[in-house]
Amino acid sequence: MPTACSTRSPARRSAEPIAAAALAVLTAAAAMPARADGLVAYRIVDAAIPASLTGQPGDATRGRAIVANRQIGLCVLCHSGPFPELRFHSDLAPDLTGIGNRMSEGELRLRVVDASHANPQTIMPSYYRVDGLTRVTPALRGKPLLDAGQIEDVVAYLKTLKE
Ligand code: HEC
Questions:
Q1: Which residue has the CA at smallest separation from atom 43 of ligand 1?
Q2: 44, 75, 112, 152: which could join 58 in a potential S-S bond, CB 3.0 to 4.6 Å?
Q3: Using CA positions, which residue lies closest to atom 17 of ligand 1?
Q4: Among 69, 76, 79, which is best to mutate for testing ligand 1, by the most ligand atoms less than 8 A from CB?
Q5: CA-nearest residue, atom 12 of ligand 1
């Protein structure tokens, strides 16, 4: 019956984007299974994490804001770098200027995710780890210092630091 067809077809059309979105979510979830601790699983290959934790590239502008911020990233408590707006510069850790030349994207990601992989005695926090950490305040227990999206933003920014 033509009338029934014409009333049903718009409904069928509008379900298509929903089905496509659901499929995209399921596919992403299958590619990035959540671990028991709620963090995104990642694979370390040759001292690097080659794949984005979110499946997407990060945003370098947001990453710079995280790195240069003394409350969120804390990076500048230890690192100096191309941050002319900051009044004092720390030299506890290597200068980040040119780090995009010295380390690959995957090496940068692993360094920020888990600095103890490169140096078990490091003073640098592991930003995407919740296990094996001591001295964590109760409010932060069970939460990584940065979430997966923030890690990707920081990596995107560090990649731009070329000389
Ligand atoms: C408490 C001090 C501290 C903080 C905070 C810190 N780092 Fe580090 N970082 C270090 C030290 C020290 C090293 C040198 C290697 C080592 O001892 O682990 C290092 C090494 C690195 C390296 C490798 C540098 C090289 O030239 O080999 C990168 C990249 C890096 N840090 C990025 C960051 C970023 C991004 C942040 C913030 C999200 C950060 N760090 C926060 C102390 C710190």
A1: 124
A2: 152
A3: 122
A4: 79
A5: 93
- Residue 35 DSSP one-character state: P
Distances (CA, A) of 79 to 8, 64, 74, 76, 93: 62, 13, 9, 5, 5
CA 110 to ligand 1 centroid distance, Å:
11
Q: Which two tokens stand for residue 108?
A: 């940068």
Which long-range contacts does 38-43 make (Cβ < 8 Å, 24+ apart)? Answer: 38/130, 38/142, 39/128, 39/129, 39/130, 39/144, 39/148, 40/148, 42/113
Q: Residue 40: beta bridge partners?
A: 34
Q: Tokens 């999206």 label which residue?
A: 149
Domain range summary for the chain, segments of one domain joined by +: 1-31, 35-159
Q: Give tens-digit pLDDT for 37-83.
A: 789 999 999 999 999 999 999 999 999 999 998 888 889 999 999 98
Task: Give residues with Cβ within 8 angstroms of 5, minimum separation 6.
Answer: none
Using CA atoms, how far residue 68 sits from 26, 76, 82, in Å, is 35, 6, 9
For residue 40, give the amino acid letter.
Answer: V
Architecture of the structural domain at 35-159: Orthogonal Bundle (1.10)
